[in-house]
Write a structure and sequence with these properties.
With 543 residues, the protein is α/β, with parallel strands linked by helices. The chain is built from 17 helices and 14 strands. The strands form 3 sheets. A 6-stranded mixed β-sheet has the order 1-14-13-2-3-6. Strands 7, 8, 9, 10, 11 and 12 form a 6-stranded antiparallel β-sheet that branches. A two-stranded antiparallel ribbon has the order 4-5.
């Protein structure tokens, strides 16, 4: 079986949208997914897929209401309720609780728009079991007429801990972040959203000390102000739901087979994409004797570093679980390939009280969300590339074509002063400089300076000279080079002009690399333009 890679690239122009398939086709993709899932009733160790989907929606959406209510954001009244009626559509997306750029944030707007078009509800998963990339954002500013950028921190870096375990370490830095950032920017961006929204993040400090949840509350409040009402829940809560634990037990009960399917699919993915790294896009699931690595993270509350979960089938009805790096199992499950998982689920539900965190990884996050929670999942570019592999694993594990997903991203520049320089113009100027070097005779004034005539004649004689032997060719090369050197003084003024022009273009392109970056945090963008771009890029006609 071969894999055909999808070529997904962020749009290069301001306001450009990548939607694969186009957003207008989202309702049709939703219909196809619903039909496919309706006919799929896989047995998850004693619970059928249809029953688990209803269970997952009810439990997770009830948790979502409680989560939103905690932050004063429970604004879902009057919207369709998939948690009470499993026939109501549920559109799902998710991302880490970071200060993301508009190309990420647009998924939340599109999720709500698609949900509205099909008469359903949107759900955003706050991926708080992931690790922060940074606790600072790149901020543009002007200095002595030059456009520059610098990182401004909103907290102290505390190591590679998951968001759900990460409190704000420096409350002073967090509280002063907006003031310091706005002072550095000095008005280079008009009316940045940060000015309006950071007080909401500070207000959330009265509810939680968790960095990620404060940022999520700020973002969700802005979405509400702009008319976007999605359900919202941390992924850590999802991973403690009963439906998710049935899903987990099923994968654990068939772990040797899952590992074979996963690693074979990973090999095909790497071959299709020409990847040689053993760690990209994910490492293989390992085996050490009768211990198998499972597609889940595990850690203890008092030592919140993520480790792979290891599992060993003791006999046909018992399984042991171990944290990678520890010597002894921490749990025994009454679980086997042919055993109902009800007792194992109950055992896993005890783990949070014991300070043990069992969490999903990227591939199993979307496998659960697409198969047992939502009717349509929205990915960004990175997630879509991961789920090329996820689709292969899904086919191998469940024996059916996985429900389709939609990939969406937006390129939005923040409105910084840019330069008319272009890479095409620089290439043209550099080509002219090269031609002056190797063909200065083509650029002499007319009439030709008398002092240059002998060099031109010498070059023409060398060009027309013999090339039959290696010695002839070497002599010809040096004669042409010597003639070109003799002609350099006659084109030096033109060369100087072109070199100065090339330097101006390089300076302009360097400025544009800052001015036209799509990676600036959304909170740094002008409020009104950001709102228009996000709403416009996510619009879907109602069916």
């Amino acid at each position: 079986m071969t894999m055909t890679p999808r070529r997904l690239r962020a749009p290069a122009v301001d306001g450009g949208v990548l939607a694969d398939p186009p957003l207008a086709e989202a309702p049709g993709l939703f219909d196809a997914n619903r039909a496919r899932l309706a006919s799929w009733d896989h047995d998850f160790q004693g619970r059928r897929a249809g029953r688990l989907r209803a269970m997952a929606r009810h439990e997770i959406l009830e948790q979502s209401r409680r989560f939103l209510r905690r932050f004063g954001l429970d604004d879902l009244d009057g919207l369709p309720e998939p948690g009470r009626d499993p026939n109501v559509p549920l559109i799902v997306t998710g991302h880490q609780p970071e200060l993301s750029h508009p190309g990420v944030w647009v998924k939340n707007f599109a999720t709500a728009s698609i949900a509205g078009a099909v008469g359903g509800l949107g759900l955003n998963l706050i991926v708080d079991n992931d690790i922060p990339k940074a606790v600072a954002v790149r901020v543009p500013f002007r200095e002595n007429g030059r456009l520059l950028s610098r990182y401004v921190a909103f907290d102290e870096w505390s190591g590679e801990f998951p968001y759900e375990e990460l409190p704000v370490r420096d409350e002073g830095a967090f509280a002063s972040f907006a003031d310091r950032t706005l002072a550095l920017m000095g008005g280079v961006i008009d009316d940045p959203l940060l000015r309006h929204d950071w007080p909401r993040a500070i207000e959330a400090a009265g509810t939680t000390d968790r960095l990620g949840l404060r940022l999520a509350a700020m973002r969700r409040a802005r979405e509400a102000a702009w008319g976007v009402r999605n359900a919202e829940i941390p992924l850590s809560r999802v991973c403690e739901s009963e439906a998710f634990l049935w899903f987990t037990c099923h994968l654990l009960a068939h772990l040797p087979r899952f590992r074979r399917v996963h690693n074979a699919a990973l090999g095909r993915y790497r071959k299709a994409h020409g990847i040689r790294s053993r760690n990209h896009p994910v490492p293989e699931l390992t085996q050490d004797g009768d211990w198998y690595e499972a597609p889940f993270w595990i850690w203890r509350r008092e030592s919140p570093r993520r480790h792979p979960l290891l599992a060993r089938q003791v006999d046909s009805t018992r399984m042991e679980l171990r944290i990678a790096g520890e010597d002894e199992p921490f749990c025994e499950l009454p679980l086997g390939p042919d055993r109902d998982a009800c007792c194992a689920v109950e055992r896993l539900r005890e783990l949070p009280a014991q300070g043990v965190r069992l969490r999903t990884r990227a591939l199993t996050t979307t496998m659960f969300a697409r198969a047992l929670l939502g009717d349509l999942f929205l990915h960004g570019i990175g997630g879509a590339k991961y789920d090329e592999l996820g689709d292969e694993v899904f086919r191998g594990v469940f024996g059916i074509e996985p429900p389709g997903f939609l990939t969406l991203s937006l390129t939005l520049w923040p409105g910084l002063p840019d330069d008319p320089a272009s890479a095409e113009e620089l290439r043209r100027v550099e080509a002219q400089i090269r031609d002056l070097t190797f063909n200065p005779d083509r650029h002499l004034t007319d009439p030709m300076p008398e002092a240059a005539r002998s060099a031109v004649l010498a070059k023409q004689s060398a060009v027309d000279g013999p090339t039959g032997s290696r010695r002839d060719r070497i002599a010809r090369y040096f004669a042409i080079r010597e003639a070109n050197r003799a002609l350099e003084p006659f084109v030096s003024a033109e060369r100087g002009d072109l070199q100065r022009q090339a330097e101006r273009l390089r300076t302009g392109l360097a400025r544009n690399a800052l001015a036209r970056s799509r990676e600036y945090a959304a909170v740094l963008h002008p409020s009104d333009r950001l709102r228009s771009a996000l709403k416009g890029a996510s619009r879907v006609a109602s069916t």
